Amino acid sequence: MEKKEGWKTLPEGDILEGGSSLKFKTGNWRSSKPIHHPEKCINCLLCWIYCPDGAIKVKDGKIEGIDYDYCKGCGICAHECPKDAIEMVIEKGMEK
Amino acid sequence: MKVAKTANEAFAEAMRQINPDVVAAYPITPATEIVQIFSQFVADGLVKTEFIAVESEHSAMSACIGASASGARTMTGTSSQGLALMWEMLYIASALRLPIIMAVVNRALSAPINIHCDHSDTLGARDSGWIQIYSENVQETYDNVIQAVRIAEHPDVRLPVMVTTDGFILSHCLETMDMLTDEEVKEFVGEPPERENLLKSAREDKPITIGALDLQDYYFEHKRQQAEAMKNALKVIPEIGKEFGEKFGRSYGFFENYRLDDAEVGIVVMGSTAGTGKEVVDEMRKKGKKVGLLKLRIFRPFPFNQISQALSHLKVVGVMDRADGVNSYCGPLFPEICTSLYDLPERPKVVDFIYGLGGRDIKKSDIEGIFNDLLKIAETGKKEFNLKYIGVRE
Amino acid sequence: MPSLKELSKRQERFVSGHRLCPGCAAGMIARMVMLAIDKPVVVGCATGCLEVASTIFPYSAWKVPWIHSAFENVAATISGVETAYRAFKKQKKISEDIVFVAFGGDGGTYDIGLQSLSGAAERGHRMLYICYDNQAYMNTGIQRSSATPQYANTTTSPVGKVIPGKLQWQKDLPSIMVAHRIPYVATSIPGRWNDLISKVEKAIKFDGFTFIDVLAPCRLGWGYDPSLTAEISRLAVETCIWPLYEVVEGKYRLTYKPKEKKPVIEWFKLQRRFSHLLKPENAGLLEEIQKEVDRRWEELLEKCENS
Question: Which neighbouring-strand residues pair with C191?
Answer without folding.
Answer: none
